[in-house]
């Protein structure tokens, strides 16, 4: 059982200096099966490793004597202000990490002024997450039961969500072998997919290979909320997304949890940025662990990035306080990187400042 007293959480944070420190601390605190669920990827986890390695393969070139002044990190995405171009990626089942689950994450997001993308498979309802005051977007897996999908869309609208994030890299579940070895295929007793009908069992969630552009067209007609497609890696799909009325694209391989051996998301970003040519905002997730990683992604064509696993580690270490600390660390590192690069804002770092 996790000790939830304020003293224990602040003590847990004492030794945390960077984002990576959270993972080691979380590994100590989490049940092994749940740690594996968060950490794992598909099959050989080639893509999991590739995501982080892609940032390591790129170097940053500072510009000098530009007098950039104090860095301005604030940004606007799809008309919505955020305190920095770092979002919380949608990850399922926060209750495995911390009893207050997505409510703790939402409170931290609200305090930090960052956009949280809530997962459809959250363990508290989207309404309860919205009540934290976080700037919220809702991620969806389009369910073939369109009446159900529409009901979720209406709930997102009513809860004040600023956008829908449709995950398109999941016509089936990736093959997670750590999950197979641990026999982890559903939530423990007392936890459920709170947005879903019935008992909220994971096995009742449908990842359907029938989902197609027709469903996106349907969704486009069904809501006036901005729609982002998450999980695009092919430049032709990025063009199609724009043609079908998507308002944004998240370049992502699902943190290496779906098709293994895809390239790192960062490696696909420049090509997709060229294909989209500024028509819609681009986000990137996968392997972002440092302020310098954020700077690299923005220089290569993203307007913002999202972080997945680090949020889960921080939540497991100290709940809301942990996620607040994580976001502070990211903000501090990004501000420092931008200043050292000679830029006044993250968006001012240019493509020529990133080299192999
Ligand atoms: C995810 N991700 C994810 N994505 C999504 O669209 N719906 C979901 O329910 C989930 N669930 C989920 C659970 C866990 C445990 C992880 C680690 C990830 C993918 C997530 O949004 C994001 O694409 C990656 O996590 C980004 O990579 P990093 O930051 O974890 O390296």
From TrEMBL:
<feature type="binding site">
    <location>
        <position position="252"/>
    </location>
    <ligand>
        <name>FMN</name>
    </ligand>
</feature>
<feature type="binding site">
    <location>
        <begin position="90"/>
        <end position="92"/>
    </location>
    <ligand>
        <name>FMN</name>
    </ligand>
</feature>
<feature type="binding site">
    <location>
        <position position="37"/>
    </location>
    <ligand>
        <name>glyoxylate</name>
    </ligand>
</feature>
<keyword id="KW-0560">Oxidoreductase</keyword>
<dbReference type="InterPro" id="IPR012133">
    <property type="entry name" value="Alpha-hydoxy_acid_DH_FMN"/>
</dbReference>
<dbReference type="GO" id="GO:0016491">
    <property type="term" value="F:oxidoreductase activity"/>
</dbReference>
<feature type="binding site">
    <location>
        <position position="230"/>
    </location>
    <ligand>
        <name>FMN</name>
    </ligand>
</feature>
<protein>
    <submittedName>
        <fullName>4-hydroxymandelate oxidase</fullName>
    </submittedName>
</protein>
<feature type="active site" description="Proton acceptor">
    <location>
        <position position="254"/>
    </location>
</feature>
<dbReference type="GO" id="GO:0010181">
    <property type="term" value="F:FMN binding"/>
</dbReference>
<dbReference type="InterPro" id="IPR013785">
    <property type="entry name" value="Aldolase_TIM"/>
</dbReference>
<dbReference type="InterPro" id="IPR008259">
    <property type="entry name" value="FMN_hydac_DH_AS"/>
</dbReference>
<feature type="binding site">
    <location>
        <position position="141"/>
    </location>
    <ligand>
        <name>glyoxylate</name>
    </ligand>
</feature>
<feature type="binding site">
    <location>
        <begin position="308"/>
        <end position="309"/>
    </location>
    <ligand>
        <name>FMN</name>
    </ligand>
</feature>
<feature type="binding site">
    <location>
        <position position="254"/>
    </location>
    <ligand>
        <name>FMN</name>
    </ligand>
</feature>
<dbReference type="InterPro" id="IPR000262">
    <property type="entry name" value="FMN-dep_DH"/>
</dbReference>
<feature type="binding site">
    <location>
        <begin position="285"/>
        <end position="289"/>
    </location>
    <ligand>
        <name>FMN</name>
    </ligand>
</feature>
<keyword id="KW-0285">Flavoprotein</keyword>
<feature type="binding site">
    <location>
        <position position="257"/>
    </location>
    <ligand>
        <name>glyoxylate</name>
    </ligand>
</feature>
<feature type="binding site">
    <location>
        <position position="167"/>
    </location>
    <ligand>
        <name>FMN</name>
    </ligand>
</feature>
<comment type="similarity">
    <text>Belongs to the FMN-dependent alpha-hydroxy acid dehydrogenase family.</text>
</comment>
<keyword id="KW-0288">FMN</keyword>
<dbReference type="InterPro" id="IPR037396">
    <property type="entry name" value="FMN_HAD"/>
</dbReference>
<feature type="binding site">
    <location>
        <position position="139"/>
    </location>
    <ligand>
        <name>FMN</name>
    </ligand>
</feature>
<feature type="domain" description="FMN hydroxy acid dehydrogenase">
    <location>
        <begin position="11"/>
        <end position="356"/>
    </location>
</feature>
<dbReference type="GO" id="GO:0005737">
    <property type="term" value="C:cytoplasm"/>
</dbReference>
<dbReference type="Pfam" id="PF01070">
    <property type="entry name" value="FMN_dh"/>
</dbReference>
């Amino acid at each position: 059982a996790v000790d939830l007293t304020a003293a224990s959480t602040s003590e847990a944070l004492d030794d945390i200096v960077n984002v990576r420190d959270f993972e080691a601390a979380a590994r100590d605190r989490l049940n092994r099966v749940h740690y594996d669920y968060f950490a794992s990827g598909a099959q050989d986890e080639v893509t999991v490793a590739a995501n982080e390695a892609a940032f390591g393969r790129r170097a940053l070139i500072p510009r000098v004597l530009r007098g950039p002044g104090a860095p301005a990190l604030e940004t606007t995405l799809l008309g919505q202000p955020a305190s920095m171009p770092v979002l919380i990626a949608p990850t399922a089942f926060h209750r495995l990490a911390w009893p207050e689950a997505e409510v703790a994450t939402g409170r931290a997001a609200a305090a930090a002024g960052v956009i949280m993308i809530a997962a459809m498979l959250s363990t508290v309802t989207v309404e309860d997450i919205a009540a934290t005051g976080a700037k919220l977007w809702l991620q969806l897996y389009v369910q073939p039961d369109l009446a159900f999908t529409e009901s979720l869309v209406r709930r997102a609208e009513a809860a004040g969500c600023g956008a829908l994030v449709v995950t398109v890299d999941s016509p089936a579940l990736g093959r997670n072998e750590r999950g197979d070895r641990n026999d982890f295929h559903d939530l423990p007793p007392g936890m459920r997919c709170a947005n879903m009908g019935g008992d909220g069992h994971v096995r009742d969630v449908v990842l359907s290979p029938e989902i197609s552009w027709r469903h996106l067209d349907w969704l486009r007609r069904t809501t006036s909320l901005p729609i982002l497609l998450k999980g695009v890696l092919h430049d032709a799909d990025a063009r199609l997304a724009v043609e079908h009325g998507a308002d944004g694209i998240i370049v992502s391989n699902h943190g290496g949890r779906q098709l293994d051996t895809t390239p790192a998301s960062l490696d696909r970003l420049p090509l997709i940025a060229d294909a989209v040519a500024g028509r819609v905002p681009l986000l990137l997730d996968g392997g972002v662990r440092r302020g310098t990683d954020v700077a690299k992604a923005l220089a290569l064509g993203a307007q913002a990035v999202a972080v997945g696993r680090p949020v889960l580690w921080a939540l497991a270490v100290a709940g809301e306080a942990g996620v607040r600390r994580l976001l502070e660390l990211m903000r501090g590192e990004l501000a420092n990187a931008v200043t050292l690069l000679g830029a006044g804002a993250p968006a001012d770092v240019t493509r020529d400042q990133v080299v192999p």
